[in-house]
Amino acid sequence: MLKHIVMWQFKDEAEGRTKAENCAYAKALLEALPAKIPFIRKLEVGLNAYTSTMSADMVLVTEFDSKNDLDLYAVHPDHVKVSEYIGTVRVSRMVCDYEV
After folding, report:
1. Exposed, middle or buried: residue 26 (CB in 10 Å: 0-12, 13-18, 19+)?
2. What is d(CA 92, CA 94) in angstroms, rounded to the nearest whole number?
3. Which has the closest alpha carbon to 46: 22, 25, 19, 27?
4. What separation in angstroms does the CA of 57 have from each of 18, 69, 75, 91?
5. pLDDT at residue 36, rounded to an integer
6. How much is the pLDDT for 43?
7. Taking the CA atoms of the chain, what radius of gyration do you get in angstroms?
């Protein structure tokens, strides 16, 4: 099994929304993906509760059976749409993938 973790920092304002609004919207988009992409085994999205200078605004934790499934997820049209949106409202992105 493979865990795919992504953390983002969001712009204070973007696409006519505040940071909080964009985080909530992105969270809803991400949480809708398992119904559209069957090889997502588990998906969890968390919004940062305690802000510090080192914190991300949002984290995504997903699980896949294999690297191949992660690769298919990366190019799946529904994931690409969400990724493109988040790309317009984020400041930074960090990823960690590891075998479980």
Report:
1. buried
2. 7
3. 27
4. 12, 26, 24, 10
5. 98
6. 98
7. 13
Question: Where do the structural domains in the chain lie, given as residue ranges?
Answer: 2-99
Q: How far is CA 98 from the centre of its chain?
A: 16
Residue 91: predicted pLDDT: 98
For tokens 């968390």, what's the residue? 46
The DSSP-derived string for the chain is -EEEEEEEEE-SEETTEEHHHHHHHHHHHHHTGGGT-TT--EEEEEE-SS--TT--SEEEEEEESSHHHHHHHHH-HHHHHHHHHHHHHEEEEEEEEEE-
CA nearest to 25, candidates 5, 39, 11? 11
CATH of 2-99, one of 3.30.70.100, 3.40.1190.10, 3.40.190.10, 1.20.1250.20: 3.30.70.100
